[in-house]
Design brief:
This protein is of the alpha+beta class. The protein has a single domain, classed as NADH Oxidase. Helix content is about 35%, strand content about 15%. The protein has 6 helices and 3 strands, in the order H-H-H-E-H-E-H-E-H. The protein has a 3-stranded antiparallel sheet with strand order 1-3-2, sandwiched between helices. The chain is globular. The structure holds flavin mononucleotide.
Length: about 160
């Protein structure tokens, strides 16, 4: 890949398989941005320092220095169900890595470069990269790997009926 690895918002707006729907609504939009703000705070990158933010995003495209990078490829003829099935498979890979003392970073950021990846990986015409995954030994002492995640509680996430 020769061109500078920087996601192109115009291209993403026309992606038939977007990572997020356009005009993401609340509370999802707010949660997404809050997590990003917390991460950049941990990285000590101020909001106005766009170049530094982009440099961090670009680290995705070297798998954050991990020794192994995986790409998860799906056949675009498959239906929504199979996207969910692929997600389960990816989660299983992540859990197995943890079990063996490794770690990973799931990376939907790679979706920004699906056409380039299809060429690079010589994918078939119906195949597309869903996401990537950096695999290695995470440096758990790094602030980016240990800042507190403001996760919603189960009562906000789920509704229990009949209990
Ligand atoms: C489906 C999915 C895609 C993700 N894509 C990215 C990504 O492209 N780049 C990145 O730095 N983190 C990405 N993340 C976040 C990291 O993988 C995250 O650190 C990891 O999921 C650990 O979860 P936690 O931060 O909630 O502990 C993604 C997470 C998920 C679940």
């Amino acid at each position: 890949m020769t061109r500078e690895l920087r996601p192109d918002p115009a291209r993403e707006a026309n992606d038939p398989y977007p990572i997020y729907p356009p005009n993401l609504w609340e509370p999802l939009r707010g949660r997404r941005f809050a997590l990003a703000e917390d991460m950049y705070r941990a990285l000590e990158i101020p909001r106005e320092d766009k170049p530094a933010r982009l440099r961090h995003v670009a680290r995705n495209f070297e798998f954050f220095g991990a020794p192994v990078g995986l790409f998860f490829v799906i056949d675009r003829r498959l239906a929504h169900g199979q996207w969910a099935h692929l997600g389960m498979l990816i989660q299983t890979v992540a859990l197995l890595l943890e079990e063996r003392g490794l770690g990973c970073c799931m990376q939907e950021a790679w979706a920004s470069f699906r056409p380039e990846l299809a060429t690079l990986l010589k994918l078939g015409s119906e195949e597309m990269v869903y996401c990537g995954m950096a695999v290695g030994h995470p440096d758990r002492s790094k602030p980016v790997n240990q800042f507190p995640r403001n996760r919603v509680g189960v009562d906000e996430l789920a509704e229990f009926r009949g209990f």
